[in-house]
Design goal:
By secondary structure, the protein is mainly α. The chain has one domain. The chain is built from 5 helices and no strands.
């Protein structure tokens, strides 16, 4: 479990980008779309991770194991959603 959490956070080199994206999307969604902002960011982050999976095609090659890919993706989604929540509060 410790390694899983480490891969979600410290081992996730693109986490900062997902956090930034979650904050920016939250402001855009809040200003222009009349729908719960955090849910839209969640849907967008999830869709992005699915896109990355199909674009890359081989998560084992990039992340080493499927477990590491799941941890990385989960960290990205949680980071984006938490930042969206912080931005709109």
């Amino acid at each position: 479990m410790k390694d899983f959490f480490k891969e979600m956070t410290v081992g996730n080199r693109w986490l900062w980008f997902h956090i930034l994206g979650g904050g920016i999307l939250a402001k855009i969604f809040e200003a222009y779309i009349n729908y719960p902002t955090v849910l839209l960011v969640l849907y967008t982050a999830f869709a992005w991770e699915i896109f990355e999976l199909f674009y890359d095609g081989n998560p084992k090659k990039t992340y080493g194991t499927i477990k590491n890919w799941i941890a990385d993706s989960l960290g990205d989604i949680i980071g984006a959603v938490l930042m969206a929540w912080v931005v709109i509060r």
